[in-house]
Amino acid sequence: MGKEKHMKKVIELFNKSPVVSHNSVARIVGTNSSYTKQLIRNLIIENKIKRLTKGYYTIHDDPSLTVFCFKPAYLGLQDALSIHDLWEQETIPIVITTRKIRQGIRNINNNNIMLRRINKKYMFGIEYKSINNYYFPYSDIEKTFIDMIYYKQHIDKETLKEFKKRINKKKLKSYLKKYPELMRMRAEKELKKE
Questions:
Q1: Which of 58, 77, 98 is at the close of a domain?
Q2: Any idea what the Cα angle at residue 75 is, between residues 114 and 191, rounded to 5°?
Q3: 172 and 155 in a common domain
Q4: Label partner for 124 (CA 20 to 30 A): which of 3, 20, 70, 79?
Q5: Average pLDDT over residues 15-19
Q6: pTM score, two decimals?
Q7: Same-domain status, 137 and 103
């Protein structure tokens, strides 16, 4: 297969998928890894693709796409508050993953994202939200509330009022059963605040 034909197939892949891995490109071009690296490098230099993180690339400008690079993962905390219309403030994407990663802020194509780690047993309460024709995994309202407490994030009065209005108490109770008692007590204490 000629290099032109490879390039056409690689570009088609990028047009179809929001995030493309190095391995996916390698499958198209064959086993020659130095050729795959060179091809990716050239596409980046020509501004046709952008690097999201090691081994993952995209043609889009959305830093939230990094959530697909750290699977299993979801977008949560203040980012989820915005998506659920629980508060008005702009926020950076906050990726919560079970992977062993370096936590903190990372710069992805001149945009910041926050990476947080979570224990596998707390990897639940995820729903998919359609944004720019892609479905992103976000924590649902109940899990967002729990995560805010778990990560010791401040919940202002207005946001707490919205949480109280919209939380499904039955679902919240079943989620909290998966956490230690101290965590359940902290959640109950937060909900009792005026």
A1: 58
A2: 100
A3: yes
A4: 20
A5: 93
A6: 0.92
A7: yes
User: Could you write out the three-class secondary structure of the chain?
Assistant: CCHHHHHHHHHHHHHHCCCEEHHHHHHHHCCCHHHHHHHHHHHHHCCCCEEEECCEEECCCCHHHHHHHCCCEEECCHHHHHHCCCCCCCCCCEEEECCCCCCEEEEECCEEEEEEECCHHHCCCEEEEEECCEEEEEECHHHHHHHHHHCCCCCCHHHHHHHHHHCCHHHHHHHHCCCCHHHHHHHHHHHHCC
As a whole-number percent, the residues of the chain with pLDDT over 70 amount to 98
Q: Are 54 and 106 found together in one domain? A: no
Tokens, residue 184:
């359940």
Q: Indicate if 116 and 180 belong to the same structural domain.
A: yes
Domain count, the chain: 2
Greater model confidence, 89 or 74: 74
- 132: pLDDT strictly greater than 70: yes
Domain carrying residue 49: 3-58
